[in-house]
Amino acid sequence: MPSLPDVAPNVAIVGATGAVGVELVRCLEERNFPLASLKLLASSRSAGRQVNFRGQALTVETLGDDSFAGVDLALFSAGSGLSKVYGPKAVAAGAVVVDNSSAFRMDPDCPLVVPEVNAGTLANHRGIVANPNCVAIIAVVPVAPLARAFGLKRLQMATYQAASGAGAAAMEELRASTQAQLEGRPFSPQVLPHPYAFNLFSHNAEVDAESGYNGEELKVIEECRRILDTPELPIGVTCIRVPVLRAHAIAMTLEFDRVVTPEEVREVLAAAPGVRVVDDRARNHFPMPSEAEGQGDVLAGRVRRDLGDPSGRSIALFVAGDQLLKGAALNAVQIAERLVPAAKPQLRSGELVGAS
After folding, report:
1. pLDDT tens figures, 252-290
2. ∠ at Cα 48 (44, 50), nearest 5°?
3. Angle at Cα 277 formed by Cα 159 and Cα 217, nearest 5°?
4. Are 91 and 85 in contact (CB under 8 A)?
């Protein structure tokens, strides 16, 4: 099993020019991640591009079979197909892989990790660690401490998912289609199946004919159960794409083992790492994508009793998190910090020190 050196490792980023790859580079720099060298890998279309990192211009190289010689840590964000091909090759060359695709998320030999929730599972890795689905990450950061405190019987969610979850091309389509709509020009969607400007629609993953759930919803259910280590937890979810650039939001209702008050929930969330409570009823100020964007916490608020459950055991809340950061790149770098002996992240209430 590959292991990371006690000193600063040699790091590679696969998919370095994509939306998540750009954020990976930024997170490594902003969090002062200890590394001896950084190699940027992408397709031949991006080879030769220059990327600034710590005052130096790094040249993007073409991903190939020999790309991982001398690499200790490889951060992958290039899609499941490439991960399945090159992830094992990186491990064979001696690297530990943190993979942002769906390729290994349900592989029992690959821990599926959100550091605030289940960092202990990293000890079981065999060379590859899976970074979860963005919705699953943003959901479990506030759900896990509540489940530990009160016991969780059921979780129901509706998501409001940003364009960034479909990549840089979808973000550009949102910008372009919005501009066209404002100017009264026709616009034909190319990346997503429906008009995006001033619209929302069911997540564009393929729908399972039998259950009626789409692939995104089924992934969220499976991954939340695995991260929380609750394989039988009843979870329902509806995933919706909304015209927001990069921060996901989730409306959720949690049913607990006992009667729980909103005050108890706020107290637990306020002490939870990676969570920031935004819950101002007087000003009607609750989590918003515009405030979640560009920072690493999951914002949680709108905490209230679920009036649909007269038993008093259910609480409703609303959360928001940056899909490209905590939902992808930041979580991957936080995993790497736990793997690298030279990196010593410090947890405090509400955030990780150094979070962007």
Report:
1. 999 999 999 999 999 999 999 999 999 999 999 999 999
2. 130
3. 15
4. no
Please choose, from the candidates 7, 10, 8, 26, the residue with its C-alpha nearest in 3D space to the C-alpha of residue 333: 26
Helix axes 134-150, 215-228, angle to 10 degrees: 40
Helices (H), the chain: 19-30, 80-92, 115-118, 134-150, 168-183, 215-228, 262-271, 289-292, 330-339
State both tokens at 258.
Answer: 């006992």
Q: In angstroms, what CA-CA distances link 223 with 30, 65, 107, 328? A: 29, 30, 11, 14
pLDDT per residue as tens digits for the range 295-347: 999 999 999 999 999 999 999 999 999 999 999 999 999 999 999 986 755 44
Residue 176: CB atoms within 10 A of its CB come to: 17
Tokens of residue 133, six digits: 């689905």
Known catalytic residues are: 134, 248
Pair of tokens at residue 44: 């031949």
- 136: nearest Cα among 112, 154, 153: 112
Query: Within a 10 A sphere around the Cβ of 185, how many other Cβ atoms?
Result: 10
Phi, psi (degrees; rounded to nearest 5) at 65:
-60, -30
Q: Are 217 and 239 in contact (CB under 8 A)?
A: yes
Classify strands 201-202 and 235-241 as parallel, antiparallel or unpaired: antiparallel
Cα(300)–Cα(292) distance, rounded to whole angstroms? 10
Q: How far apart are CA 37 and CA 58, in angstroms?
A: 10
Residue type, 20: V
Contact in structure between 355 and 346 (CB atoms under 8 Å): no
Which residues does 334 contact at the CB level (< 8 Å), separation at least 6? 115, 345, 352
